[in-house]
Design a protein that fits this description.
Distance between the termini: 70 Å
Number of strands: 16
Structural class: alpha+beta
Shape: flat
Helix content: 55-70%
Largest sheet: 6 strands, antiparallel
Number of helices: 22
Radius of gyration: 34 Å
Strand content: 15-25%
Length: 620
């Protein structure tokens, strides 16, 4: 290493090492070498030691960001891999293999619940060497895994055998001891309220699982649960094909058509492709709706129907029986995953369906459910990444600006460009539904601090009004939207968010629920609450026509207004102060009304005008 003869040499060496990704030891050695060289005095050595500590912290921060980025990348790869798998056993093996690799543990394993028996069975494992451990059966509430399966909450222990939070049983403890496990983390595999099983990561030594590791394994479990549920749906589809193969010749047509649908899904087809394929086979017009009755797709020949083209009671029957139900001029099939209603299929143009055609129509509902579940998996992964970016942007814009900008670019968002920031408030209802409806207006959208936040391009006031109207129509409930900006840069965006949040609170306090506005649209209240109060603009906006008239005509309308308000809006007292006839006062006030509008004496307008008059006097 080159000898250090000046502080600048050492600092340059530290920066070079930091830029090249040097180790902690290499960075620390710069300070050690400078001390050993004896060329620097005590003050320079102290400054260099401080710079060395800062370099070490920077390196740790960069390493942490790289680790989080690597974890997110691994999660995306995992979601993609799971979505491509179609066999439940293959999905299970992939899940535990990924869990072991992501957390770097000795053993990972997965149990599946048997609700009828009230037990959870270890189904697959990775890294396990004990046959006794692999055959453990846990009752719900027993051991760490049984508690996770029962409560649907993650649990972790650094030393299982000394942890009295769990109900220890002889056969569970014996199997865990035979495997040599000490630290165990378990998270639920769940679809909505239904717990499918438990995903575990464990070490053979004492280990504290961090909150990040719990969150990482939970994210993997969310993806895995959806993939597993999808694989089971696909497995049901394949069993349906097997049933069709055993039928007579009249069933072969339905079997071939169903194979086509399955292949279509596996090749990456989407809802319109399925609609076209089913409509072609059944010789009708097919439309696909979500659970709220919103049209998702239709066959090429189908005419878009109303959002509720059939009796909801018919759909309820189809959902309960799991069979297609006929109406006067169509057939309805519920699209569901277990008890959850995902949507519906409506087949028009067929008065009757043979048994094979009816079964094909019902199987099309299964395939549609699979597609909707896969779509939900992708949307959840994207929402998670966008939500994390939005949270980091609004809570800590200065922590690592370069990383935030890079994360935005990966999502196709230029965070250095001007953006309006909008905050949408809806009493009751699902915030995620509001965020989903707002996505078409936004560059970036997510839920932050219990409110929906949007980044968009355009005039903030106009955007706020349009988004409030659109979201109110889409959700069926009033949505109040406050806006600020445009803001350029990370810190400016965070500041604009705070102003937009104040604007929402002001709108609600003013009783303007369901409206949208920026601070500029709130008049003098906006000036009081806004971060960038422009008093000249407020005066000009409020009194501009009167000021211009006085300047052009040499009149005294402003002075008349001051006297009028100062004397309690009484004409007699005003004319005495001005030393004019009362008719002159009346004529002047009529001119004011023609310039400011007939409502200029309404309480709210009068208050703004009086405030503007006082500000104008102070400015002049």
């Amino acid at each position: 290493m080159t000898a250090v003869t000046a502080p600048s040499d050492a600092l340059r060496r530290l920066l070079d090492l930091l830029a090249s990704g040097a180790s902690t030891e290499q960075l620390a050695h710069v300070v050690v070498a400078a001390r050993a060289g004896g060329a620097l005095d005590a003050a320079d050595l102290a400054a260099l030691a401080s710079a060395g500590e800062l370099a070490l912290r920077i390196r740790e921060t960069l390493a942490e960001h790289r680790r989080r980025e690597a974890q997110l990348t691994a999660l995306f790869e995992t979601a993609s891999e799971l979505a491509a798998l179609s066999d439940p056993d293959t999905v299970l093996r992939s899940i535990v293999r990924r869990a072991r690799a992501l957390l770097g543990v000795d053993v990972s394993y997965l149990s599946l619940n048997n609700e009828a028996e009230g037990k959870t069975y270890i189904r697959v494992s990775d890294g396990s060497v004990s046959a006794e451990f692999q055959q453990i059966v846990l009752g719900l509430g027993e051991g760490l895994g049984g508690l996770v399966a029962q409560t649907a909450r993650p649990y972790a222990t650094s030393d299982y055998f000394t942890d009295d939070r769990f109900k220890h049983t002889r056969h569970i403890d014996s199997g865990v001891e035979d495997e040599g496990l000490t630290a165990i983390l378990g998270v639920p595999l769940a679809i909505g309220p239904k717990v499918l099983g438990v995903l575990f990561a464990s070490d053979r030594a004492v280990r504290e699982f961090s909150a990040d590791e719990v969150a990482l394994l939970s994210s993997l479990a969310d993806h895995a649960a959806i993939a597993l549920d999808s694989a089971n749906l696909l497995d049901q589809t394949r069993r349906a094909v097997a049933e069709l193969n055993e039928a007579n010749a009249t069933m072969e047509r339905a079997e071939d058509a169903h194979d086509r649908l399955t292949d279509l899904v596996l090749r990456g087809g989407d809802l319109p492709d399925v609609a076209d394929a089913v409509a072609a086979v059944l010789h009708g017009d097919l439309t696909v709706y979500d659970a709220d009755g919103t049209l998702l797709a239709s066959s090429a020949a189908a005419v878009a129907l109303d959002p509720a083209p059939f009796d909801q009671d018919v759909l309820a029957v189809a959902r309960t029986t799991g069979r297609a139900v006929s109406t006067k001029d169509s057939w309805v099939c519920a699209v569901q995953a277990g008890p959850e209603l995902l949507g519906s299929l409506v087949l028009a143009g067929r008065a009757g369906l043979s048994d094979p055609d009816r079964r094909l129509f019902e199987r099309a509902g299964v395939v549609t459910a699979l597609l909707l579940m896969l779509r939900r998996s992708v949307v959840r992964a994207e929402d998670e990444v966008r939500g994390e970016l939005l949270t980091d942007l609004l809570t800590a814009p200065g922590r690592n600006p370069r990383a935030l900008l890079a994360r935005g670019r990966r999502l196709g968002i230029d965070l250095s460009a001007p953006h309006a920031v909008l905050v949408a408030h809806a009493d009751g209802g699902s915030r995620r539904r509001v965020a989903s409806a707002a996505a078409r207006h936004a560059t970036l959208v997510g839920v932050h601090a219990e409110e929906v936040v949007l980044l968009a391009t355009g005039d903030p006031d106009e955007l706020a009004r349009r988004v409030a109207a659109d979201l109110g129509s889409a959700t069926g409930r009033p949505v109040t939207v406050g806006a600020a900006g445009p803001a350029s840069g990370l810190s400016a965006i965070a500041d604009a968010h705070a102003e937009a949040a104040r604007c929402v609170r002001a709108l609600l306090a003013l009783g303007r629920t369901g409206e949208g506005a920026a601070m500029a649209g709130l008049g003098f209240l906006g000036q009081l609450l806004g971060d960038r109060a422009d008093l000249d603009a407020f005066v000009r906006q409020t009194l501009g026509p009167v000021l211009d008239y006085d300047e052009r005509r040499g009149t005294e309308l402003v002075a008349t207004l001051r006297a009028y308000f100062a004397n309690g809006s009484q004409l007699a007292r005003t004319k005495d102060v001005l030393h004019v006839h009362v008719n002159t006062v009346v004529q002047r006030l009529e001119r004011v009304a023609s310039l400011l509008g007939e409502d200029w004496q309404a309480p709210d307008r009068a208050l703004e005008i009086q405030l503007a008059l006082r500000l104008h006097r102070l400015q002049n």
